[in-house]
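Why should sequence recovery work at all? Because a backbone constrains its sequence more than one might expect. Tight turns favour small or flexible residues, buried strands favour hydrophobic ones, and helices have their own preferences. The token representation captures these environments compactly. In the example below, the structure is given first.
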């Protein structure tokens, strides 16, 4: 059975965006969080390690850089996971001698929640708050890692608007 096509005329078409009015924001911070993309945030420098880097070496790198998060990537810069101080406490501390020489991929947090460069900063902050984690990797359109958003960077961004 064939369906009849409905003819569309210019008179019957109504553009849903014809009466669109831009959002109104209560303050500059709300506008910055909702009307920009992630590139307004400080996303670099970042600490990365290869998936085959040992747990011990990764912990040394975290300590040397004074950071709480290393992004775990492969040779093509594809993100595989994150290794944070929480992973150290939950997965390494009690069994350090058994896992210290294993690749970090064994104890990292796999498939972390990410945002894309074109996403709004508000999305990343919402993910951090509702997901109860402190670091959000930021990817480009091709899923390549371009940075990480963490508490220090969020605080720096927010401080511009809380004078």
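From this structural description, the recovered sequence reads:
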């Amino acid at each position: 059975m064939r369906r009849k096509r409905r003819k569309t005329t210019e008179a019957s078409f109504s553009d849903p965006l014809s009466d669109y009015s831009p959002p109104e924001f209560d303050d500059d911070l709300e506008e910055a969080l909702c009307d920009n993309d992630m590139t307004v945030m400080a996303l670099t420098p970042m600490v990365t390690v290869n998936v085959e880097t040992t747990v011990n070496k990764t912990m040394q790198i975290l300590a040397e850089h004074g950071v709480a998060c290393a992004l775990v990537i492969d040779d093509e810069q594809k993100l595989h996971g994150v290794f944070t101080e929480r992973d150290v406490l939950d997965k390494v501390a009690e069994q350090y001698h058994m896992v210290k020489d294993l690749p970090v991929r064994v104890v990292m947090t796999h498939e972390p929640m990410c945002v894309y460069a074109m996403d709004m900063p508000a999305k990343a902050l919402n993910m951090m708050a509702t997901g109860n984690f402190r670091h959000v990797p930021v990817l480009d359109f091709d899923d390549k890692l371009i940075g990480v958003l963490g508490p220090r960077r969020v605080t720096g961004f927010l401080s511009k608007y809380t004078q």
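A few observations help interpret the result. Residues 55-65 form the longest helix (11 residues).
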